[in-house]
Amino acid sequence: MLKFGGLWPRRLNIALGELDPPMKLTKIPAPDFDLEKTLDSGQVFHWVKTGHGFCGTIGDRAAYVEQRGNELLVTRGCGELVANYFALDHPLANICRSFPRDPLMDAARRFCRGLRIIRQPKWECLATFICSSMKQVAHIRQISRKLREHFGNARNIDSRKGGFAGANSHEVFTFPSAERLAQSSEKELRECALGYRAKNLLATARLIAKGEADLAKMSALSDIDLQEVLCQMPGVGAKVANCVMLFAYQRLRAFPIDVWIERVLRQNYFPRMRKLNAARLRMFTEKYFGEHGGYAQQYLFHFARMSASKGKSRNRIRERANLSPHPA
DNA sequence: CTCCAGGGATGAT
DNA sequence: ATCATCCATGGA
Q1: How far is the CA of A328 from the C1' of C12 (A)?
Q2: Which residue is nearest to nucleotide C8 (CA to C1')?
Q3: Fewer CB within 10 Å of terminal CB in chain A, N or C?
Q4: What is the 3 state secondary structure string of chain A?
């Protein structure tokens, strides 16, 4: 709409975010950070790729975030919120240095450079991971989207982009509160493709809504006690509890063990050792990966998942045949 | 310890 | 088009 008689340099247009009209964006420093990797590493499931960035919510706020080298362009007024959410204050170089030195960790560390553990809102994280049980990432995204659309609040992000006709103004939805979900029914929740998880999510939402569990107060608990309290909630077992501890309570030692992690650990640290139960594996991870075990786990998880999905069918079948631990 | 329900996307055929 | 595979929790 502004005319500069063709004197507006091309570079300036790019610097303004290639937006038409320009979206009001704030620039914040983000060294040692990879936005796309972080959002695609199985921590959060609601960010939507939009143009060169992503649209999503952080708690009650909606935001657009785009990476430009060592900086982020974010919705105006959301700088601090975004910096805190993406944990830009974590001393990533120190954290990576604290990982054990071995061929697997070295490869994962190289592959995941810039990946950070997000600081998630507690209820949103707990609820999402209750829904994640027995689901793959693509499916968890669907569930998250449906829950938000049915029970959350709409927010608009003005993200009209030049040359990006399909993506004009973007609507996103906040994650519904425990109180809101507590008022719903199992049937309504099942309509969001939750299956048998509906019952667990509803029961846990009611615990929170009635004040029988206080997620904020639980911050004061030790790792052991926090895990125990979380595991008392319906639908929360060791794996989900560790995800919540890591992603919502910043317990950077918490080491969620799912099938991907278990597979990669067994292959690399316990090749053809048939007698290794969950308890022994747990003892190993706590000792071996140390104070930032959760970060190490996230790097291993992302590395394993990406390497597996990149291989074409042939390779995967061969891999699986080689690894197959079935003792028949 | 073992076995198994549960459900929808995804990939193989 | 069908068929197999992926997966965490909780209860038998």
Answers
A1: 24
A2: A133
A3: C
A4: CCCCCCCCCHHHHHHCCCECCCCCEEEEECCCCCHHHHHCCCCCCCCEEECCEEEEEECCEEEEEEEECCEEEEECCCHHHHHHHCCCCCCHHHHHHCCCCCHHHHHHHHHCCCCCCCCCCHHHHHHHHHHCCCCCHHHHHHHHHHHHHHHCCEEEEECCECCCCCCCEEEEECCCCHHHHHCCCHHHHHCCCCCCHHHHHHHHHHHHHCCCCCCCHHHHCCHHHHHHHHHCCCCCCHHHHHHHHHHHCCCCCCCCCCHHHHHHHHHHHCCCCCCCCHHHHHHHHHHHHHHHHHHHHHHHHHHHHHHHHHCCHHHHHHHHHHHCCCCC
Residue A235: CB less than 7 A from any atom in strand C: yes
Q: Model pTM?
A: 0.88
Spacing of A228 CA from B7 C1' in Å: 29
**Residue that is written with structure tokens 């077992």 in the block:** A237
Q: Is the CB of A323 under 7 A from strand C?
A: no
pLDDT in tens, A47-100: 999 999 999 999 999 999 999 999 999 999 999 999 999 999 999 999 999 999
Residue in this structure with the two tokens 């390497």, named with its chain if needed: A307
Residues in chain A, how many? 328
Nearest DNA or RNA nucleotide to A257 (CA to C1') = C8
C-alpha radius of gyration, chain A, whole number:
21
Does A279 contact strand C, using a CB cutoff of 7 Å?
no
> Residue A202: which of A176, A228, A245, A234 has the closest Cα?
A234
